[in-house]
Automatic annotation (TrEMBL):
Protein name: GTP 3',8-cyclase
Pfam families, per database record: Mob_synth_C, Radical_SAM
Pathway entry: Cofactor biosynthesis; molybdopterin biosynthesis
Superkingdom of the source species: Eukaryota
Enzyme class per UniProt: lyase
Entry annotated with the keyword 4Fe-4S: yes
Keyword set, alphabetical order: 4Fe-4S, GTP-binding, Iron, Iron-sulfur, Lyase, Metal-binding, Molybdenum cofactor biosynthesis, Nucleotide-binding, S-adenosyl-L-methionine
Length: 344
């Protein structure tokens, strides 16, 4: 993949980010200097940032991409055991004392936002199992310059936390759901909870999230027969169903035979809904977005395997243990914080 060049061996991006984030973290200021080099599909984003004078060249990589989107993993733990994500016997987890504290999350996030990051997404593991999730959202949403605070969740315990999260400044939601059949849900996740996820989707709509994004990883022989059922969810509700190509991760026993390609999924939806129409995508968008005539919601396709979007990627990743990754698929990590016991 294109981004592998950023993840293996030294690069301008990795050296500059490590140096300047560490300086900022310990309180050493640096004068911003906006780079004029930006050759990806996000040129419009560049022009906007230059006009606002809010972006530092610290977050421009060696390919000229402006990294304005930070994903923060709040925990390695999850209350599901999805087969495509985790081995049946679980995964080795860092001791809780080695994970980022709330203060460290906020302090590091502030460094990135002050350098030009405008969107933060909270992930995990499962972010809603952190007891201080509402407090983290309140503090993050108050950072000057942050325009969007999002979260990706499995929805199991989300419903009862939604009102507080909404009030805390959480501005957008992605809820993962791979099947509309409870028995298949239990098989895939090795846990019960299908009804809880459905309730969370409906409650998110009720409290005002629009759209509610539903992430669906499509796997041949498991849920590829439900593609149109998911698309039907968009008829009367502000739901954006996001069909995701099955990707390889450590421990998920990925097999190309399970991959349902974007073109296959598009054909299935187009056959059922001939009025399917391509929508205008936002700069740095990873999804290909479509509308269906008469439907309140939309459908999207994330083509990680067959039509990757590395050239326009603007994402950075801060892991729960304080390590930093430029690419989800890259093996390299940068340690921002010293290895010492820290308490959540």
């Amino acid at each position: 993949m294109f981004l592998m060049r950023l993840s293996v061996g030294p690069s301008i991006m990795r050296r500059h980010v490590l140096k300047n984030v560490w300086r900022s973290f310990v309180g050493i200021k640096r004068n911003p200097d906006i780079s004029s080099v930006y050759s990806t599909s996000s040129a419009n984003l560049r022009d906007s940032l230059l006009q606002e004078n809010t972006f530092s060249d610290v977050l421009v990589d060696s390919f000229g991409r402006m990294h304005t989107y930070l994903r923060i993993s709040l925990t390695e733990r999850c209350n599901l055991r999805c087969q495509y994500c985790m081995p049946a016997d679980g995964a080795d987890l860092s001791p809780r004392t080695h994970l980022l504290s709330q203060d460290e999350v906020i302090r590091l996030a502030n460094v990135f936002v002050s350098s030009g990051v405008s969107k933060i997404r909270l992930t995990g593991g499962e972010p809603t199992i952190r007891k201080d999730i509402e407090d983290i959202c309140v503090r993050l949403s108050s950072l000057k310059g942050l325009k969007n605070l999002a979260m990706t969740t499995n929805g199991i315990v989300l419903s009862r936390k939604l009102p507080n999260l909404k009030d805390a400044g959480l501005s957008s939601l992605n809820i993962s759901l791979d099947t509309l059949v409870p028995a298949k849900f239990e098989f895939m996740t090795r846990r019960k909870g299908h009804d809880s996820v459905i309730q969370s989707i409906n409650d998110a709509i009720e409290v005002g999230y629009n759209p509610v994004k539903v992430n669906c990883v499509v796997m041949r022989g498991f849920n590829d027969d439900e593609i149109c059922d998911f698309a039907e969810l968009t008829r009367e509700k502000p739901i954006n169903v996001r069909f995701i190509e099955f990707m390889p991760f450590d421990g998920n026993v990925w097999n190309v035979k399970k991959l349902v390609t974007y073109k296959e999924m598009l054909h299935i939806v187009k056959t059922r809904y001939p009025s399917l129409k391509r929508l205008q995508d936002q700069p740095t968008e990873t999804a290909k977005n479509f509308g269906i005539e008469g439907h309140e919601g939309t459908v999207s396709f994330i083509t990680s395997m067959t039509e990757h979007f590395c050239a326009g990627c603007n994402r950075l990743r801060l892991l729960a243990d304080g390590n930093f990754k430029v690419c989800l698929f890259g093996p390299s990590e940068i340690k921002f914080l010293p290895a010492k016991p820290r308490y959540v």
